[in-house]
Amino acid sequence: MKVLMLNGSANAGGSTRAGLDIMAKVFAEQGVETEIVCVGGKPLRDCIGCNRCSELGRCVFDDDAVNGFVGKAKESDGFVFGTPVYYAHPSGRILSFLDRAFFSSMWGDGASAFRHKPAASIVVARRAGTSASYDVMNKYFGISQMLCVGSTYWNEFHALTREDVPRDIEGTQTLRNLARNMTWLMKCIAAGRNDGILPPEAEANDMTNFVR
Ligand SMILES: Cc1cc2nc3c(=O)[nH]c(=O)nc-3n(C[C@H](O)[C@H](O)[C@H](O)COP(=O)(O)O)c2cc1C
Question: From the CA of 132, how far away is ligand 1's center (Å)?
Fold first, then answer.
Protein backbone atom coordinates (compact mmCIF):
# COMPACT_ATOMS: atom_id res chain seq x y z
CA MET A 1 0.00 0.00 0.00
CA LYS A 2 1.53 3.29 -1.08
CA VAL A 3 0.76 6.99 -0.72
CA LEU A 4 2.24 9.36 -3.29
CA MET A 5 2.90 12.84 -1.93
CA LEU A 6 3.58 16.06 -3.79
CA ASN A 7 5.50 18.97 -2.29
CA GLY A 8 4.24 22.08 -4.08
CA SER A 9 6.97 24.35 -2.77
CA ALA A 10 10.19 25.14 -4.60
CA ASN A 11 11.70 25.08 -1.13
CA ALA A 12 12.23 21.32 -1.02
CA GLY A 13 13.02 21.22 2.70
CA GLY A 14 10.61 23.87 3.97
CA SER A 15 7.36 23.92 5.92
CA THR A 16 5.35 22.00 3.34
CA ARG A 17 7.91 19.22 3.41
CA ALA A 18 7.86 19.23 7.23
CA GLY A 19 4.07 18.69 7.14
CA LEU A 20 4.38 15.87 4.62
CA ASP A 21 7.09 14.28 6.79
CA ILE A 22 4.76 14.30 9.81
CA MET A 23 2.19 12.39 7.79
CA ALA A 24 4.81 10.06 6.29
CA LYS A 25 5.88 9.04 9.81
CA VAL A 26 2.31 8.04 10.70
CA PHE A 27 1.90 6.19 7.41
CA ALA A 28 5.15 4.30 8.11
CA GLU A 29 3.94 3.34 11.59
CA GLN A 30 0.89 1.78 9.94
CA GLY A 31 2.88 -0.09 7.30
CA VAL A 32 2.06 2.30 4.46
CA GLU A 33 4.88 3.20 2.07
CA THR A 34 5.27 6.82 0.96
CA GLU A 35 7.13 8.67 -1.75
CA ILE A 36 7.52 12.44 -1.85
CA VAL A 37 7.89 14.18 -5.21
CA CYS A 38 8.86 17.86 -5.18
CA VAL A 39 7.76 20.27 -7.91
CA GLY A 40 11.24 21.76 -7.66
CA GLY A 41 12.57 25.21 -8.36
CA LYS A 42 13.22 25.03 -12.09
CA PRO A 43 10.87 26.71 -14.57
CA LEU A 44 7.70 24.64 -14.77
CA ARG A 45 5.33 24.86 -17.71
CA ASP A 46 1.65 25.54 -17.32
CA CYS A 47 -0.94 23.61 -19.34
CA ILE A 48 -1.25 25.29 -22.75
CA GLY A 49 -4.48 23.51 -23.69
CA CYS A 50 -2.97 21.98 -26.83
CA ASN A 51 -4.88 18.71 -26.26
CA ARG A 52 -1.96 16.69 -27.58
CA CYS A 53 -2.28 14.57 -24.45
CA SER A 54 -5.51 13.12 -25.86
CA GLU A 55 -3.43 11.54 -28.65
CA LEU A 56 -0.23 10.83 -26.73
CA GLY A 57 -1.70 9.66 -23.42
CA ARG A 58 0.78 11.91 -21.62
CA CYS A 59 1.65 15.59 -21.46
CA VAL A 60 3.45 16.81 -24.56
CA PHE A 61 6.05 18.46 -22.31
CA ASP A 62 8.29 15.67 -21.15
CA ASP A 63 11.15 17.62 -19.56
CA ASP A 64 9.93 17.77 -15.96
CA ALA A 65 8.42 15.53 -13.30
CA VAL A 66 4.75 15.64 -14.40
CA ASN A 67 4.60 12.55 -16.64
CA GLY A 68 6.71 10.56 -14.18
CA PHE A 69 4.35 11.59 -11.41
CA VAL A 70 1.33 10.26 -13.32
CA GLY A 71 3.23 7.01 -13.86
CA LYS A 72 3.87 6.74 -10.12
CA ALA A 73 0.22 7.63 -9.44
CA LYS A 74 -0.92 4.53 -11.35
CA GLU A 75 0.95 2.41 -8.80
CA SER A 76 -0.28 4.37 -5.74
CA ASP A 77 -3.27 3.83 -3.47
CA GLY A 78 -3.61 7.34 -2.02
CA PHE A 79 -2.37 10.90 -2.46
CA VAL A 80 -1.37 13.89 -0.36
CA PHE A 81 -0.73 17.16 -2.17
CA GLY A 82 0.97 19.81 -0.02
CA THR A 83 1.26 23.47 -0.87
CA PRO A 84 2.43 26.69 0.74
CA VAL A 85 0.00 29.59 0.57
CA TYR A 86 1.08 32.38 -1.79
CA TYR A 87 -1.13 35.47 -1.79
CA ALA A 88 -4.01 33.40 -0.41
CA HIS A 89 -3.83 30.73 -3.12
CA PRO A 90 -1.81 27.54 -3.66
CA SER A 91 1.65 27.97 -5.17
CA GLY A 92 1.51 28.72 -8.88
CA ARG A 93 3.81 25.83 -9.56
CA ILE A 94 1.64 23.19 -7.89
CA LEU A 95 -1.32 24.40 -9.95
CA SER A 96 0.72 24.22 -13.15
CA PHE A 97 1.93 20.76 -12.16
CA LEU A 98 -1.50 19.40 -11.22
CA ASP A 99 -3.35 20.99 -14.16
CA ARG A 100 -1.03 19.09 -16.47
CA ALA A 101 -1.02 15.87 -14.41
CA PHE A 102 -4.82 15.69 -14.22
CA PHE A 103 -5.61 16.94 -17.73
CA SER A 104 -3.09 14.65 -19.41
CA SER A 105 -4.32 11.60 -17.47
CA MET A 106 -7.97 12.03 -18.48
CA TRP A 107 -7.54 9.90 -21.58
CA GLY A 108 -7.39 6.11 -22.06
CA ASP A 109 -6.25 4.24 -18.99
CA GLY A 110 -4.71 7.42 -17.56
CA ALA A 111 -7.77 8.19 -15.47
CA SER A 112 -7.19 5.04 -13.46
CA ALA A 113 -4.15 6.78 -11.97
CA PHE A 114 -6.38 8.84 -9.67
CA ARG A 115 -9.97 7.57 -9.98
CA HIS A 116 -11.62 6.04 -6.87
CA LYS A 117 -8.53 6.60 -4.74
CA PRO A 118 -8.36 8.58 -1.46
CA ALA A 119 -6.72 11.99 -1.60
CA ALA A 120 -6.09 14.96 0.63
CA SER A 121 -4.50 18.34 0.26
CA ILE A 122 -2.56 20.03 3.06
CA VAL A 123 -1.81 23.74 3.09
CA VAL A 124 0.62 25.81 5.13
CA ALA A 125 0.72 29.57 5.64
CA ARG A 126 2.31 31.98 8.00
CA ARG A 127 -1.07 33.50 8.76
CA ALA A 128 -3.93 33.66 6.21
CA GLY A 129 -5.25 32.23 2.97
CA THR A 130 -5.34 28.58 4.04
CA SER A 131 -9.07 27.92 3.56
CA ALA A 132 -9.14 29.54 0.11
CA SER A 133 -6.08 27.50 -0.93
CA TYR A 134 -7.56 24.29 0.48
CA ASP A 135 -10.73 24.85 -1.57
CA VAL A 136 -8.72 25.22 -4.76
CA MET A 137 -6.65 22.09 -4.12
CA ASN A 138 -9.66 19.92 -3.33
CA LYS A 139 -11.31 20.69 -6.64
CA TYR A 140 -8.89 18.33 -8.41
CA PHE A 141 -10.36 15.47 -6.38
CA GLY A 142 -14.05 16.11 -6.96
CA ILE A 143 -13.85 16.12 -10.75
CA SER A 144 -11.63 13.03 -10.81
CA GLN A 145 -13.92 10.68 -8.84
CA MET A 146 -11.47 10.70 -5.96
CA LEU A 147 -12.37 10.27 -2.29
CA CYS A 148 -11.47 13.41 -0.39
CA VAL A 149 -10.23 12.58 3.11
CA GLY A 150 -10.88 14.85 6.07
CA SER A 151 -9.40 15.20 9.50
CA THR A 152 -10.21 16.83 12.83
CA TYR A 153 -9.86 20.28 11.25
CA TRP A 154 -9.40 21.49 7.68
CA ASN A 155 -6.01 20.22 6.61
CA GLU A 156 -4.04 23.38 7.29
CA PHE A 157 -1.18 24.36 9.54
CA HIS A 158 0.76 27.52 10.27
CA ALA A 159 4.46 28.20 9.83
CA LEU A 160 6.76 30.74 8.26
CA THR A 161 9.64 28.24 8.23
CA ARG A 162 9.86 24.52 8.94
CA GLU A 163 11.06 25.22 12.50
CA ASP A 164 7.60 26.65 13.26
CA VAL A 165 5.74 23.53 12.18
CA PRO A 166 5.95 21.50 15.44
CA ARG A 167 4.73 24.56 17.36
CA ASP A 168 1.33 24.36 15.68
CA ILE A 169 -0.02 21.72 18.05
CA GLU A 170 -3.50 21.48 16.51
CA GLY A 171 -2.17 21.72 12.97
CA THR A 172 0.20 18.79 13.46
CA GLN A 173 -2.53 16.76 15.17
CA THR A 174 -4.72 17.42 12.16
CA LEU A 175 -2.00 16.05 9.88
CA ARG A 176 -1.52 12.89 11.95
CA ASN A 177 -5.25 12.26 12.17
CA LEU A 178 -5.50 12.80 8.44
CA ALA A 179 -2.86 10.13 7.80
CA ARG A 180 -4.75 7.70 10.06
CA ASN A 181 -8.05 8.40 8.30
CA MET A 182 -6.47 7.91 4.89
CA THR A 183 -4.85 4.64 5.98
CA TRP A 184 -8.19 3.38 7.27
CA LEU A 185 -9.93 4.30 4.01
CA MET A 186 -7.26 2.65 1.86
CA LYS A 187 -7.60 -0.52 3.96
CA CYS A 188 -11.40 -0.44 3.61
CA ILE A 189 -11.06 -0.13 -0.16
CA ALA A 190 -8.59 -3.02 -0.29
CA ALA A 191 -10.82 -5.18 1.93
CA GLY A 192 -13.83 -4.34 -0.25
CA ARG A 193 -11.92 -5.24 -3.38
CA ASN A 194 -11.00 -8.62 -1.85
CA ASP A 195 -14.70 -9.10 -1.13
CA GLY A 196 -15.77 -8.28 -4.69
CA ILE A 197 -16.97 -4.75 -3.92
CA LEU A 198 -15.62 -2.82 -6.89
CA PRO A 199 -16.01 0.86 -7.83
CA PRO A 200 -19.11 1.64 -9.92
CA GLU A 201 -18.86 2.18 -13.66
CA ALA A 202 -19.54 5.84 -14.45
CA GLU A 203 -22.06 6.84 -17.10
CA ALA A 204 -20.54 8.26 -20.28
CA ASN A 205 -19.63 11.90 -19.77
CA ASP A 206 -21.91 13.88 -22.13
CA MET A 207 -20.21 17.27 -22.23
CA THR A 208 -22.86 19.91 -22.79
CA ASN A 209 -20.86 23.15 -22.37
CA PHE A 210 -24.10 24.87 -21.23
CA VAL A 211 -25.04 26.23 -24.68
CA ARG A 212 -25.28 23.12 -26.83
C1 LIG B 1 5.36 34.74 -2.61
C2 LIG B 1 4.88 34.38 -1.24
C3 LIG B 1 3.58 34.65 -0.89
C4 LIG B 1 3.10 34.32 0.38
N5 LIG B 1 1.79 34.58 0.70
C6 LIG B 1 1.32 34.26 1.91
C7 LIG B 1 -0.05 34.49 2.24
O8 LIG B 1 -0.87 34.92 1.43
N9 LIG B 1 -0.46 34.20 3.50
C10 LIG B 1 0.41 33.70 4.45
O11 LIG B 1 -0.02 33.48 5.56
N12 LIG B 1 1.69 33.38 4.14
C13 LIG B 1 2.17 33.66 2.90
N14 LIG B 1 3.47 33.35 2.58
C15 LIG B 1 4.29 32.59 3.56
C16 LIG B 1 4.36 31.09 3.25
O17 LIG B 1 3.09 30.53 3.02
C18 LIG B 1 5.02 30.35 4.43
O19 LIG B 1 6.27 30.90 4.70
C20 LIG B 1 5.15 28.85 4.20
O21 LIG B 1 5.54 28.26 5.41
C22 LIG B 1 6.20 28.52 3.13
O23 LIG B 1 6.23 27.12 2.93
P24 LIG B 1 7.54 26.40 2.29
O25 LIG B 1 8.65 26.57 3.31
O26 LIG B 1 7.16 24.98 2.14
O27 LIG B 1 7.81 27.08 1.00
C28 LIG B 1 3.96 33.69 1.32
C29 LIG B 1 5.28 33.39 0.95
C30 LIG B 1 5.74 33.73 -0.32
C31 LIG B 1 7.15 33.38 -0.71
Answer: 14
In a domain, 205, yes or no: no
Which domain CATH number covers 17?
3.40.50.360
Domain count of the fold of the chain: 1
With b meaning 16 or more CB within 10 Å and e meaning fewer, what string describes 31-61? Answer: ebebebbbbeeeebeebeeeeebeeebbbbb
The predicted pLDDT at position 210 comes to 78
> How many of the other CB atoms lie within 10 Å of CB of 12?
13
146-177: pLDDT as tens digits? 999 999 999 999 999 999 999 999 999 999 99
pTM over 0.85: yes
Q: Which amino acids bring their CB within 6 angstroms of ligand 1? A: 9, 11, 14-16, 84-88, 124-129, 159-160
Choice among 77-81, 104-108, 124-128 with the minimum mean pLDDT: 104-108
Question: Is 190 inside any structural domain?
Answer: yes
Domain range enclosing 64:
2-194
Residue 173 alpha carbon to ligand 1 centre in Å: 21
